[in-house]
Amino acid sequence: MLAAGDITDEQRHLDLHVRATMHLTHAALGAMLERGHGRIVNVASVAGFMPRGTYGAVKAWVISFSRWANVVYAPRGVSVTALCPGFTHTNFHERLGLPPGREGIPSVMWLDAADVVGERLRDAARGKAVSIPSVRYKLLVAAMRLLPSPLAARLARTAR
User: With a threshold of 0.85, does the pTM exceed it?
Assistant: First the structure.
């Protein structure tokens, strides 16, 4: 939580998810615009569609930034896509000391990393600004958009 935690942790989120995304996008754009084509995929999260503290806020920024960049640069041949996965099997949770099956997340919510990458690269090739893997996460995002803000915040607070 923000009030109880070290602000340095929150600033690291900003550095990693906002500043790094901006710098890497900027670095890639020059050459891509010069040759008249390219694709940039920024990693966001379904958390960016939910009121979820710093992590959700920085992921919302990645989504907004990618949408903006796609509108501006797609006419010049460069698409920018925000990849918004949910829980995906990687070694991330194991590095936190949570072996598979111990994360407290229902198995139905987990996605396979290879599937996420393959499907989302197809979305990037189509020039989609936002790519949300799986029907269940698309439905979750749609539901969050329809809920009144206080209810969405309450539900997001109870989620992991």
Answer: no
